[in-house]
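Appendix B, Record 12. Input sequence as logged:
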Amino acid sequence: EKKRFAGFTSIYEESSDEAGEESENVLPQLNVGDPVTIQSIDSEQHFTQPPARYTEASLVRMLDEKGIGRPSTYAPTITTIIARGYVTRENKRLFATELGRMVTSVMTQYFAEIADTEFTAQMETRLDEIEEGKVDWKQVLREFYPGFEKTLKQAEKTIEKVEIHDEPSNEICEKCGSRMVYRVGRFGKFLACPGYPECKNTKPLIQETGAKCPKCGGDVIQRKSKRGYVFYGCSNYPECDFSTWDVPVAGQTCPQCGSSLFRHRASHVCLKEGCGYEAAAPRKRSRKDD
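Logged structural output:
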């Protein structure tokens, strides 16, 4: 297989490993009968690597291959597992949370038949048949529910209460002086006072980027929308309303005005009003460059 032109990969391409390195093997133009000579032979040692973590794109591709869900349900599915705290999104990759691992463990232990990709795919097919009028929905329920009801009652008797232990932080509660802890809510992790309900103080979990706001000079921090998508905004909000989807470029400033740079597609840009600086982002090193 030979890539004839870059197409959309000139501005977007999924990484194939955990380190986020990009590699590209482009063959030169070859014709049948062209002589080739060996220039060098490199001996390399490779070690078994774990599968790459799912991105939203690769997860959708896997769901499609296994017949799970439909195009209209892919986006809501990803939004739901993020909103409920089962996974987090970091640098386009999806990471399972402690809550997600616990839920998976309980489901596979007590509801193994349901927590199975083949069952889900078959149920999708049955639902399609119901929609098309080929199968009676009451008959589908009669086949499914009796066995599920027995499993559910057994699980209710045997499943112990699942608790997620609070993770201590270095943040001190300004209201009571207690050491605050990390907790998981519907929008992800946040800081909370362990003295609840006597002290109900909570704080959003601030992730600093090292960049400065191009409008007021405040710190640019990572935030999350209600749908779980990461964006970047000024820590002085609501006094300063700066926000962007572009990722701050750590340790780099605009050569024209000194403001922090942001990565927009394949370029590093300055977002300070009136500046307009833009330059091609340097290509990440790949193993073949070493």
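Residues 16-23, 286-290 have pLDDT under 50 and may be disordered.
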